[in-house]
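Hey, quick one: can you model this chain's 3D structure?
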Amino acid sequence: MSATVSQAEFARMQGWSRPYVTALKQADRLVMVDGQVDVAASLQRLAETDGQQRPDVRERNARQRLGDTSDPTQTEVGIPSKATSTARKEHYAAEAAAREHALACGELAPLADVEQALAEIAGLIQQRLQLLPASLAPLLAIEADEQRCRLLLTDEIDRLLHDLADQFAQIGEGAAA
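Sure thing. Here's the predicted structure for all 177 residues.
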């Protein structure tokens, strides 16, 4: 009589998970004696029944053991199977539908609208920065106190940032409408 072990011990011996061993037992691929796994008899039964239910899996495993990693979903070199193509088509159709929904709900904006808003923002920033020297030069030229110069610059920059924030909000409201 050969050695018998628990299902958990058999799983450890083979390097398998316990749920996999349970599935093997439920598929009647293990030889059980008094609730224990008969190791030798079970290994023989597993070898005899290996791949009978799924010849494709058996062939793939055999190819992998020989080092062949070709993808059986490829019918010819670089050409996906019909099932793979259909799955990809359905995936991208679902992605497109999700995008359309997000656009309709206002969660996304069309690229052209975003590009136009960014161009307006960049123009505003450039325009306001180019005006700084003209508006600050006369004030700074007559000011001898460094602290006062710093305060004038800070005030003007804060005013510029506040004005830009207001203009950005108006652009955002216009794009959302």
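One thing worth noting: The chain has a mean pLDDT of 84.
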